[in-house]
Specification:
The protein is built from 21 helices and ten strands. By secondary structure, the chain is an alpha/beta fold. The longest helix is centred in the N-terminal third of the chain and has 41 residues.
Length: 514
């Protein structure tokens, strides 16, 4: 079996079980919220329009944005509950994804439920009143059974929407089938992308068929159909629960941002921890703005970040002190402020840099970023998805007076494609990326030192900072990964032919350390 397909099958139980549980919980919560709202709209018809309008408004917000918006809200709420009760709520992972998906699921359920109940023949309702039924009896014995097929059609639509939208929960820290898609797009692992898409589609089809059986059973008054559909749904959720909670109680959570090097390092850390007899899982695809806060909030246990990112994004510093002084200040500041421990530097630096094709740079006479500033108004800059919003870019732009004709953002892997095709003239790159040397790109010098040091640092969360398992597992990595080794691992994971999975690249990276 192909290694990439084997890797996809290996993590399927985890990804699928968490995807199913998230969708089932969101659908159940949406049903619980829509029931009283539907009754309100039935008793007070004037409320029906505004309720459906608000539910419709939610659909205009992109799914990923809605999930991300819940993160700062939950973070603030967690601070309040911690102050009041000494215990916070998780701001990353399941909860923000659950809340966002619940809101998404409400529109089809609410709209169909209101339409179904209103669509019951008024003469039938009046006849029920005529035989002495109370309003409650009319609702339960007449309106609900007659409107059930329409309501179930809304539930089916909501289920399919929810299963598809749940793949977007990966960047906010919730493991789903979207993990295949996000990591696959980054590493150009199309096997993983297709595997994730197909599996998600199959889950949606099975859910739709199961709910369809319930819908038909209700419409035809066939208890066997209803029973078969309900049993299939319960069996699926029960299997997901068993798969999700069958692991050991002590599992370390390893964070990873959304680019190849982070996937490789997370795999390497996971293998080191598992070598100590513990279990670990990777929470991948996280954004820079979220991942450190997740670590400081104990939603993650370990992850690798870069000195320059921590210096500018986390501490908000704009000065560039000498290298050793900067690393020492970082360690003291993160411990004092957040209780986060800097275990040490891995041994390589992954700095932001600007890169060009050598022939294009030579034609323009560009060797440094200062040279680039002179011709920038003629050129297009291609950057990864977050570079143009980072403080480092603002500092670089202001220091050199960079003003490009246009700027475009891409998935990090596709930045190189854009440069190769001539769609952009200059790209943001990572200095430890093996594709720079492989594609013979020129890194532009930074004579004014606007870009700070970017040593790769192992960070431990407050609750794990003195954990002996992590000390034994990770201290041998400190200073042991050379720049050349990291570039080779990155290139092996990113190149077009004979690609390695991040897990394979991690094994190669760890081989000399053992």
């Amino acid at each position: 079996m192909d290694e990439r397909l084997h890797a996809a099958w290996r993590v399927l139980p985890e990804y699928l079980s968490q995807h199913v549980l998230l969708c089932a919980a969101a659908l159940a919560l949406a049903l619980a919220l829509c029931l009283p709202l539907t009754l309100l709209a039935l008793r007070r018809p004037r409320w029906a329009g505004p309720l459906v309008a608000v539910a419709s408004l939610v659909q205009t917000i992109p799914g990923l944005a809605l999930m991300a918006l819940f993160y700062p809200i939950l973070l603030a709420f967690s601070a309040l509950t911690t102050a009041a009760f000494g215990r916070g709520v998780p701001a990353l992972g399941f909860l923000p994804a659950l809340l966002a998906l619940t809101l998404y699921a409400m529109l089809p359920i609410l709209r169909n439920a209101i339409a179904g109940l209103r669509g019951v023949d008024a003469d039938v309702v009046e006849a029920a009143r005529g035989v002495g039924m109370t309003e409650r009896q009319i609702l339960m014995r007449v309106q609900a059974p007659l409107s059930a097929p329409v309501v179930m059609a809304g539930v089916r639509t909501a289920a399919v929407w929810t299963i598809g939208a749940a793949t977007l929960a990966t960047p906010v820290g919730q493991t789903t089938l979207g993990n295949y898609i996000f990591s696959g797009l980054q590493t150009e692992n199309w096997v993983a992308v297709i595997f994730g898409c197909v599996t998600s589609a199959l889950v949606a089809i099975i859910a739709d068929l199961s709910l369809g059986a319930v819908e038909q059973g209700v419409a035809l008054r066939e208890r066997k159909r209803i029973f078969a559909g309900v049993i299939l749904i319960i069996a699926g959720v029960a299997a997901a629960l068993l798969a999700n909670f069958s692991g050991g109680a002590r599992t370390y959570v390893i964070g990873a941002k959304n680019f190849s090097e982070q996937f490789i390092l997370a795999e390497a850390i996971t293998r080191r921890i598992e070598g100590q007899g513990a279990t670990a899982r990777i929470q991948q695809g996280l954004g820079s703005a979220i991942v450190y806060r997740a670590l400081a909030g104990n939603d993650l246990d370990v992850y690798v970040d870069y000195a320059g990112t921590l210096w500018t994004n986390v501490l908000g510093r704009t000065d560039t002190p000498p290298h050793d002084e900067m690393i020492a200040d970082l360690g003291r500041a993160l411990m004092a402020r957040d209780g986060v421990r800097v275990l040490g530097a891995l041994g390589f630096e992954n700095a932001y840099a600007l890169a060009m094709k050598p022939e294009r740079a030579a034609a323009l006479g560009v060797k440094t970023i200062a040279d680039l500033a002179r011709v920038a108004p003629q050129l297009t800059l291609g950057a990864d998805l977050e570079f143009l919003e980072r403080p480092e870019w603002a500092t670089l732009r202001n220091t050199y007076g960079l003003a490009f004709k246009a700027t475009r953002s891409f998935n990090p892997t596709f930045v190189y494609r854009a440069l190769a095709s001539g769609e952009v003239d200059v790209i943001s790159a990572f200095s430890s990326d093996g594709r720079i040397a492989a594609e013979k790109l020129v890194l532009l010098a930074d004579p004014k030192g606007a870009i700070p040091a970017y040593d790769a640092l192992v960070l431990l969360s407050p609750k794990r900072r003195d954990d002996p398992v992590l000390d034994r597992a990770l201290k041998p990595l400190i200073g042991a990964i050379t720049p050349d080794a990291m570039r080779a691992a990155n290139y092996a994971s990113d190149r077009d032919a004979d690609k390695q999975t991040p897990a394979q690249a991690a094994e190669t990276l760890l081989a000399p350390i053992r």
